[in-house]
Design goal:
The structure is a homodimer of 115-residue chains.
Chain A lengths: L9 H9 L2 H10 L4 E2 H5 L6 H13 L3 E6 L2 E6 L5 H18 L3 H7 L5
Antiparallel strand pairs in A: 1-3, 2-3
Chain A binds a DNA duplex (30 and 30 nucleotides) through α4.
Chain lengths: 115, 115
DNA sequence: ACGACACTGAACCGATTGGTGCAATGACGA
DNA sequence: TCGTCATTGCACCAATCGGTTCAGTGTCGT
């Protein structure tokens, strides 16, 4: 029906932030220490405006924290630890292992006897 | 360089497939056993066409495998184990822990001597 | 053979994405 | 104060996304 309630929950924001190699590169780079927008943009041959948008996406996901320092903006890793993202993948992997064990049919028969 | 540099296309597809709660729900459902497009669509109040598109996205990411059986399409979990997706997050978490330890500056000085 | 059923293809829609260029803004250095 | 420098806001663009409707196509049950 109407699923407009929460247009972007946390997991949505995190996974879609990670779904771009430029942004994953930014995180890798920031793992080595803080950087300005210009320093992040240069290795990708991207405009400052474009890089600012990527950083904003990462910041909205909590993966990056930024602070205006003088005329430049210092970017560093943020508070988001990806625990939830990791937990979801672990959960999926448990499902997958169950599939691997050929328990699908068994589990299917059990549906209705639980939540 | 470093071993977390997998095929970014694959990682892009996987993370963007996961960046939607409807698709995560589909995976959870398929973890309980195979289902048709209709069975997947019904709990979301979505059209069959809409659900077919979601399933296609998951299939392109390797997370779902489908097979036409009679007039319905059977969907089950696919071959993708999310090992790369998990590995990348683990890699990020190591960066984050290093940040937490306040070793950013130290690490910056050490650039070039890493594994 | 016929009708109901499950899905698919195509066209369409509004919103978002990933990028650009250009004009401002605001801080630095001489 | 003046020019330069780093970033930002705005408008714009083409492509993709998440969803719909409608018109098929092919299969099943009787």
């Amino acid at each position: 029906m109407v699923n407009h309630m929460v247009q972007h929950d946390t997991l949505d924001r995190i996974y879609s932030a990670l779904a771009d190699s430029t942004r994953r590169d930014i995180l890798t780079r920031l793992g080595e220490g803080p950087a300005s927008i210009g320093e992040l943009a240069e290795p990708h041959g991207m405009t400052l405006t474009g890089m600012t948008k990527h950083v904003r996406v990462l910041e909205d996901a909590g993966l990056v924290r930024t602070e205006k320092v003088g005329r430049s903006r210092q970017c560093r890793l943020g508070e988001e630890r990806l625990d939830d993202a990791m937990a979801w993948i672990s959960f999926y992997q448990r499902l997958w292992e169950r599939r691997l064990d050929g328990l699908e049919a068994f589990f299917t028969l059990q549906r209705g006897t639980e939540e």
